[in-house]
Automatic annotation (TrEMBL):
InterPro entries: AB_hydrolase_fold, Lip-like_C. Residues 32-401 form the Lipase-like C-terminal domain. It catalyses: a triacylglycerol + H2O = a diacylglycerol + a fatty acid + H(+). Residues 1-26 form the signal peptide. It is found in: Secreted. It comes from Tumebacillus amylolyticus. SUPFAM superfamilies: alpha/beta-Hydrolases. Its EC number is 3.1.1.3. Keywords: Hydrolase, Lipid degradation, Lipid metabolism, Secreted, Signal. This is triacylglycerol lipase.
């Protein structure tokens, strides 16, 4: 009953905003045709992986639905367990086209290869002047979970570059992503269930590393059954590239047993922790020419008997043990971010308090959305009664209508 009431309340709130109003109304008149780029979170996958089961939509297909709704949409596939820096570099190359350049300074610092894969480009004209409108071709970035951190990192690099890379690299060898020549190429950034301040799941026995290795083991098993790989770990920069003739089982074993899970901060394990998120927030800032939106999720209730937050029965079963942990975990250890009961509300993967925008170590401004988006600030759109996977259509809810409404909102932004 409470779950239903929460859903009805959320829908009521949304109905007063221009997300769910008639797209033909004045508030939602189409003002831009910037493509939407969907960026997956930790352990996510590309459209051609996982036997066609979509990260964005599950058995449905949010990308194709939005395209049919007249919104050009692309789905990115970046490193599922890589750091936000490396994921941002990959996202840049995927959208614009070219070879991934992780940066000379970054490669030296973390002992990884400087260059990665080469992409044809989803939207090669990105950043060019549109001959019809006379304006820069921009994109609307939408990130789920860690994808929200990744798109923030990409925007920071586009607009401000990297002083370390500039100092370490001859100008004729420097990636345009790092050169500091302000590139106002992003119209908006939308985060959905993003751990802007990290997730305490990284501190649990069933935390990020075991979860990643479980995914690897599952992918390996499926691949072995059908004789083909179903999941791309995209860890070439660490030398963890599948070799010619190597079985998928052997490849996944090398990834599973790699020391990267505990020996470096250049992975998702660090960036997703509250301490790592605080470090990321100290240099990744909201830019004054970008619209930022944050959607939070919470699929728990307060248990009067235990005093903790417990998952609702509709939460995806694999997430429920994680939710119980998140709903009762505290940490008060010198040298680390303190987390108490205010962190207990969660969606099975991320603490709800972490989702409305970066706060730890951040100077970003977070405002409650009132129907008129404020540029350069995080417009907090409220909390949806879904778990972490349901927010992208994996589970019992069909989210296509919700994403159409999101596309309508983004399309109404002035450029």
């Amino acid at each position: 009953m409470k779950k239903t009431a929460s859903l009805l309340l959320t829908l009521s709130i949304l109905s007063t905003s221009f997300l769910l109003t008639n797209p033909a109304s004045a508030a939602t008149t189409r003002q831009n045709y910037a493509p939407i780029v969907l960026v997956h979170g930790f352990s996510g996958w590309g459209r051609d992986e996982m036997l066609g089961y979509k990260y964005w939509g599950g058995f449905t297909d949010i990308q194709e639905d939005l395209k049919n709704y007249n919104y050009t949409t692309y789905t990115a596939a970046v490193g599922p367990v890589s750091s936000n820096w490396e994921r941002a570099c990959e996202l840049y190359a995927e959208i614009k086209g070219g070879t991934v350049d992780y940066g000379a300074a970054h490669a030296k610092k973390y002992g990884v290869s400087r260059y990665g894969r080469t992409y044809p480009g989803m939207f090669p004209q990105w950043g060019d002047v549109n001959p019809t409108t006379g304006k820069i071709n921009k994109v609307n970035l939408v990130g789920h979970s860690m994808g929200g951190q990744t798109i923030r990192t990409l925007i920071q690099l586009l607009e401000n570059g990297s002083p370390d890379e500039i100092a370490s690299t001859p100008s004729d060898q420097l990636s345009p992503l790092f050169n500091g020549k302000k590139k106002s190429w992003v119209l908006s950034a939308t985060s959905i269930a993003t751990p802007h301040d990290g997730t305490t799941l990284t501190n649990g026995v069933e935390g990020i590393v075991p979860h990643a290795q479980q995914i690897i083991g599952t992918a390996s098993s499926i691949g072995g059954l059908i004789g083909e790989p179903v999941y791309d770990f995209k860890l070439d920069q660490f030398g963890l590239k599948r070799q010619p003739g190597e079985s998928f089982s052997s490849y996944s074993d090398r990834v599973y047993n790699s020391p990267i899970w505990t020996s470096t901060h250049d992975t998702a394990q660090w960036d997703l922790s509250p301490d790592g998120a605080k470090e990321l927030n100290s240099w990744v800032k909201a830019q004054p020419d970008v619209y930022y939106f944050s959607w939070s999720t919470d699929d728990t209730f307060y248990n009067l008997l235990t005093g903790h937050q417990d998952p609702w029965a509709d939460m995806n079963l694999p997430l429920q043990p994680l939710s119980f942990f998140l709903g009762s975990y505290t940490r008060n250890q010198t040298g680390h971010v303190v987390t108490g009961s205010s962190w207990w509300k969660n969606d099975g993967v991320v603490n709800t308090i972490s989702m409305n925008g970066p706060k730890l170590g951040s100077t970003d401004s977070i405002v409650t959305y009132n129907g008129t988006p404020q540029i350069g600030k995080w417009n907090s759109m409220g909390t949806l009664p879904y778990d972490h996977l349901q927010a992208v259509g994996v589970g019992i809810y069909d989210m296509r209508d919700w994403y159409r409404n999101l596309a309508t909102q983004l399309g109404s932004l002035p450029q």
